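Chain A, query sequence.
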Amino acid sequence: MDTKPKDEKVANPSTEFEKPKDLIKDSDLSHADKRQALDTWEQDARQLMTASNEGMLGKEEGLKVNGNNLLGEVVRAKDQIGEKPTPKPSR
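Chain A, predicted structure.
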């Protein structure tokens, strides 16, 4: 049994799970918890991608295998639980 607090899993999913698909398999999290955690993960992935596109590499960028596919993994995980990606706000 996983002993990590549920709030920690939802607030910091990228530090608690290796991949978004691992998060959706966690039976301790409700659908709403998974949606909130994936929203957080998606926002983080979008910010990292934006920073990378602007030439500002994050300290963890490039350290994860297939890190450049993180946003796609989050979107696929959201699809598996019946959720849609959060559109990027226009400036």
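Helices lie at 6-11, 13-16, 20-24, 31-53, 70-80. The two ends are 44 Å apart (CA to CA).
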